Amino acid sequence: MNSPDNPQAAPPGGHVDSYYAATARSLPSLPILEGRAETAVCVIGGGLAGLTAALELARAGQAVVLLEAERVGWAASGRNGGFVSASFSESILKLEERLGIEHARKLYSLSLDGVSYVRRTIEENGRSDIIGGHGWLKMIRHGDSAALKRTAERMAQDYGASYRFVARNELAQYVSSKRYHGGMLDLSPFHIHPLNYAGLVAQLAVDAGARLFEKSKVIALRREAGTWIVETVRGTVEARQVVLAGSAYGGPSGGLARRVNAAILPVSTYVVTARSARLEEAIRFEGCLGDTRRAGDYYRIVDGPGGEGRRLLWGGRITTRRSLPPHLGEELARDIRSVYPQLDDLAIEHAWAGLMGYATHKMPLLGDLGDGLWACTAFGGHGLNTTAMGGRLVAQAIAHDDDQWRLFTPFTLNWGGGLAGRLATQLEYWRLQFLDRIEEARARRQARFGG
Ligand SMILES: Cc1cc2nc3c(=O)[nH]c(=O)nc-3n(C[C@H](O)[C@H](O)[C@H](O)COP(=O)(O)OP(=O)(O)OC[C@H]3O[C@@H](n4cnc5c(N)ncnc54)[C@H](O)[C@@H]3O)c2cc1C
To answer: What is the phi/psi pair of residue 137, to 5°?
Structure first.
């Protein structure tokens, strides 16, 4: 197991020890930047935001260099839950309250384009092995399904989403758990092997002419005579434009880049994979599963290494600590058994952490910061569709002057609060957990006494 900040502890291959690294297929091996390079655009960060931007820039005929501190897909992009679905970290209905329905609809539609982009990229390149299953069953852990139904109706009526309400007795065909009281089934999301997807996008970018470098951490970024100078330990890139896509890992300091970093709150979250001979007794759904709690669990069934057997891939918990909790596997196993006590033979195989980058408004930081500096970052916990969307929007803006990114101008560079911001986030998570527990306890009482 590795800490998100401790690449030295990584297994061979330079990725953290995860189910994804253990089952990765044909990841490209890329050079270290040495010496000087000139380019039109330099992308900093080889997660899915930076990779998609580099791919789309190269496809649009731009000369592009991408610099990644570790390996492409090393961070959140290659460690996440793998759920690809519409929307953002902030809910669409909250965005509607803030910006009005027309603006919210345009944002939702862009988020859907991100979903289609991922699906198309996988299908057009004959990599259906990257997709693991379809549909998303979101379940409630309390008896009050009215709010869930209202959301489903609003999303159907005003945004064209198609959710189907699943009553408690119908849930039994998908899962066997006393924790859940009903659910909402959306057939359009799907789940992927995110590290293999990052490898595919990187390879496509290289094939399209982008120059990608790994183990090439950017340590300084400055402007000299109208050009951006991007320095790594062993090389320098001169570029007319720069795309910041470093997410929660700090990125280069100095000037506006520092303001982007300061606006991002790094939040850790955790995933395990586990074996059990009783998986099918508990879960009989091939798509994404999870609950609707404010800080809930999300999980899915995946193939075991070498296609052997089935595994449960389970994600949950949020903290602002950056080191790996010492008993992470046991803690998540406890969470799993609290939902599925029948999995008493559960054996954890991999347990890992990932860092998400959040802005205070929970929306991406996307767009032109001036002088040819672009932000394409802060996708939070909902990044598989939005990084595809963001990378494409920034590439289209640079290559074709497209101004759709302006839909994101209401989401500005607010200071994330540094250490105090991290503390506030942690306290907020505990508060939300507490509210979730109260709601569940109330539901249990009502179920017992019918009150
Ligand atoms: C455990 C976990 C589960 C998640 N589950 C889901 C999910 O199921 N569905 C979903 O939609 N989203 C999910 N997310 C969120 C999603 O993974 C992220 O939003 C998305 O991957 C962010 O992509 P990114 O490219 O912005 O950042 P990252 O993937 O974090 O990439 C940033 C890259 O920049 C590099 N970098 C940083 N600084 C520098 C520098 N100075 N020089 C060079 N390189 C630098 C880093 O090394 C890193 O590789 C999850 C996240 C985590 C952590």
So the answer is: -105, 110
